[in-house]
Amino acid sequence: MITKRIIPCLDVRDGRVVKGVNFEGLADVSSPVSLAKFYSSCGADELVFYDITASSDGRRLFTDILCETAKSVFIPLTVGGGINTVADFDRVLKCGADKVSVNSGAIKNPDLIKEAAKLYGDQCVVLSVDIKRVDGVFRVFAKGGRENTGMEAIEWIKRCVGNGAGEVVVNSIDTDGVKKGFDIPMLSAVCEAVSVPVIASGGAGCINDFITLFQTLPQVDAGLAASIFHFGEVKIADLKAEMSKNGIITRL
Amino acid sequence: MIAIIDYGVGNLFSLKSSFAAIGAEVIVTSNADEIRAADRIILPGVGAFGDAAEKLKSSGLGEVLCEEAEKGKPIMGICLGMQLLFDEGLEYGRHEGLGLIKGSVKPIADVIGEGLKIPHIGWNALRFKKNSPLFKYIKEGDHVYFVHSFYAADCDEAVIADSHYGAYLTAAVQNGNVYGCQFHPEKSGDVGLSILRAFSEI
After folding, report:
1. Is B177 on the interface with A (CB under 8 A)?
2. CB of A66 within 8 A of CB of A77?
């Protein structure tokens, strides 16, 4: 059977990983290449590199680092951040990315997903959505969660999947950073609406949060997190051992 | 020297890097002479069967590959590259493959049943069906990374490993010196690299 995936997310600014602490045996935690290798050796099923650089110099540095990583890490790599055009897809795919995640780029240009899926296949296009409840309605937020687009989230996701998004990363702004667990009601609503893989993001604070996620919502394919892995609060090897103990199929 | 055939289908960066990582000498090429001079050949591929089969045919590289297979050279197809080794592909119509392995490539939707997502994407465990030199450094139950919506059918004799996703789907095949992996060894961590290493030593 297909396994549930655990995905660490690395935010990269000016060629360095943002938010990182010391791991035993890892000399440079802010080096994306070293950290990616480390996570891969710990059993990460996939990695997300998120480019939060604003300058064009930083962007060039990011693609260099991506190339460097893809030369030594042999698990699937998803790249997001600053993806606004098909040329951006091309730029990161040439450097060894397997999937490309779009967020604001798709909001600004709803045809982006359609164009990219036609060129590179649905499996290559990941929709990432930041969602927050406003008066009880799931709304899509843009600009890193700062701006309410007014769009209803489930409709937006359905539309993007219809256009060819092959996976959806659901990032709940309501639970993000709270560390009290994933947003089960929000994820459940998304799982009911689409038939492509759904990746849960936002809210994981401990191993048990992942167990609860996969046991409550077996339709969810993967759990994504950043700081709890970077700060060593959750070790991927421990997490996967615990998942396995709880009957959740995982790659050990 | 391992030649990775470049016929304009998919991105070969990771495949090339993975062979480099195991210390194998590798060349990405669309040159028939370079392919003939190599001692092993990789046929990669991502995308649609018909389109890729047409590119192999019109470039003449499909013919070169078949000639080299005939001579006994180790050849491995990966993902769509594996599918192209078969007689035919039934993806948006019927398309002729290279005919190096008997069987047809069909939609997984025909066999996996209701409620499972398509494509079959993610890590899945291998079940061995036959011994193969490809598995020299791995064991049954090891996980590899899949991304596919079609699978090789009617090829029981050639199947050396399968994987369960609603049904048992062909994961790896062998017909003499011709090998194929439906999954991506270049994205399957140490297990994948071990398969590439075994191939480079056949």
Report:
1. no
2. yes
Any idea what DSSP says for residue A194? -
Side-chain-side CA neighbours of A148 within 13 Å: the count stands at 9
d(CA A48, CA A116): 19
* Closest-CA residue to B175 (of B95, B66, B80, B16): B66
Cβ separation of A74 and B121 shorter than 8 Å?
no
In tens, the pLDDT along A27-49 reads 566 889 999 999 999 999 999 99
Give the predicted TM-score (pTM) of the model.
0.94
Q: Is B54 a catalytic residue?
A: no
DSSP letter at B108 equals G
Domains identified in chain A and CATH numbers:
5-245 (3.20.20.70)
Place of tokens 């809210």: A203
Inter-residue contact A236 to A226 (CB < 8 Å): no
Q: Which residues of A touch B (CB under 8 A)?
A: 1-3, 5, 40, 45, 67, 70-72, 74-76, 93-96, 98, 121-123, 166-167, 195-197, 221, 251
Domains of chain B as residue ranges with CATH: 2-201 (3.40.50.880)
